[in-house]
Amino acid sequence: MIKNIGPLERKILEILWDKKQATAREICNSLEECGDRRAYSTIRTIIKRLVKKKIIAESIDPKERTFIYTPLLTQEELEITIVNSVIGELLSRFKKSTISYLAEELSDNEEEIKRIKQKLYEMKQDE
User: Fold this and answer.
1) What is the CA radius of gyration of the chain?
2) CA dihedral 32, 34, 35, 37 (to 10 degrees)
3) C-alpha dihedral (39, 41, 45, 47), degrees to nearest 10
4) Residues 6 or more apart from 54 whose CB is under 8 A from it?
5) To the nearest 10°, the Cα dihedral for 24, 71, 19, 26?
């Protein structure tokens, strides 16, 4: 269950989404090109954290004998996973308050209300 990702994790993921795959050194170099200079060991630690969270995969390039990292989730899939996790936890802990808050936040947005109604209708049809 992925609840959140940190700013450096997001930067690394953005590089991987763009490149499709990269080594830790390539990720480190890409960050430096963007003006974000970090120690190589820091980047490796964050990469290992993303592997442990099952957001990226680690494989070995037999020719170069280096690890290659690839994203397991698209940006949209990751965002949906995080939103589902956070809202699911809020609903389990504070059901009435969460629903009330969401209803109040959406009450002025007719387009969002239409999208929610459509989604609820589709879910009802699938039952």
Assistant:
1) 19
2) -30
3) 80
4) 72
5) 0
- Hunting for tokens 């003006």 — which residue is that? 35
Single-letter amino acid code for the residue at 88: G
Nearest Cα residue to 18 out of 71, 79, 68: 71
Share of the chain above pLDDT 90, in %: 57
What backbone torsions phi and psi does residue 107 show, to the nearest 5 degrees?
A: -60, -25
Place of tokens 């970090």: 38
Classify residue 22 by its DSSP letter: B
Phi, psi torsion values for 19, nearest 5 degrees: -85, -20
The predicted-structure confidence for 62-86, as pLDDT tens digits, reads as follows 888 999 999 999 999 999 999 989 8
User: In this structure, which amino acid lies at residue 22?
Assistant: A
DSSP 20: S
